[in-house]
Amino acid sequence: MKKKLTVIFLCVALAAIAIVGASLAYFTDTKSATNTFTVGNVKIDLIESQFHREGNDNSGDTTIPDPTHKVTADDGMKYVATGHTMFTDDEIKKDAETYATNYLAVKGKNMVPGRGVAKCPYVVNTGANDAYIRIRVMIPSKANNDFVAVKDGGVITNQWCSSCMGTGEFQEGTTAGWPVVEKGVEKDGVKYDVYTFTRTEPLKAGAMTEWNVWNFIGINETATSADIQKAIDEGAIKVVETDGAKTMTLNVLVEADAIQAEGFADAAAAWAAFN
């Protein structure tokens, strides 16, 4: 028994020596792989133009030119029909650069009953990722002619773009042909009627919404000084006095939101998470 153990120990020792000796003769190499990931971002620009996509803004402003570009398949438009005449993305973006100073500052100054001012908002996805988009237009509740009679101060005439929903780019609310409307939402001490336009599909990175969601804002042609005074009394129209001169101002707000498209089954799921 003792001899057997000795043999076993010897075999183990020899095996160990063989392993050590063999390891000195190995050729070795080590490789490493570095995986680089980029972090995306969601970023949008909200732009406003006097240009309704197809030119029919219905504002009554005859100074706005008509579009001349005929839509072809090369334009890549999904919601504007081939063969229709439209303003291109580049034309709208260029106009948007001077809209506030060259158009709105002129047409929106010292407004009188019957005057309409084109107000056509679009969203451009300037981020790296596709994103769900929604746009909200806010009209002072007490002056909104959609729900308040002119004689009661509802002197603001306004019109959204029905084509933005009729083509399927943006979703309708519960009433056919209308966006989602939430009345009497308070912001900075003023109550607004909020019109929400939710885009059905994600807006691809670098793309622009095809349709403007709104057409124009105006003063109702039947409004009298007494009607406007009622809107002032209700706080919908503000009176600002500077150096003895009084100016009446009306604020119509437009806001846009974006949320990443990846990870959500549809727009409803995305906005549920956002909210």
Q: Topology, pairings included?
A:
Layout: H1 2-23, E1 44-49, E2 69-70, E3 85-86, H2 89-107, E4 116-118, E5 120-125, E6 131-140, E7 156-160, H3 163-166, E8 180-187, E9 190-198, E10 214-219, H4 225-233, E11 238-242, E12 245-249, E13 253-260, H5 267-274
Antiparallel strand pairs: 1-5, 2-3, 4-10, 6-9, 6-13, 7-10, 8-9, 11-12
At a glance:
With 275 residues, the protein is an alpha+beta fold. The chain has helices at 2-23, 89-107, 163-166, 225-233, 267-274; strands at residues 44-49, 69-70, 85-86, 116-118, 120-125, 131-140, 156-160, 180-187, 190-198, 214-219, 238-242, 245-249, 253-260. The model is unreliable at 1-24 (pLDDT under 50).
Can you describe what's shown?
Helices cover 23% and strands 27% of the residues. The chain is α+β, with helices and mostly antiparallel strands and 275 residues long. It has one domain. The protein has a 4-stranded antiparallel sheet with strand order 8-9-6-13. The protein has a 3-stranded antiparallel sheet with strand order 4-10-7, with no helix packed on it. The protein starts with a helix and ends with a helix. Residues 1-24 have low confidence and may be disordered.
Relative helix content: 10-25%
Structural class: alpha+beta
Q: Which of globular, elongated, flat, extended, rod-shaped describes the shape?
A: globular
Name the helix and strand elements from N-terminus to C-terminus, one letter apiece.
HEEEHEEEEHEEEHEEEH
Low confidence ranges: 1-24
Within the largest sheet, what's the order of strands? 8-9-6-13
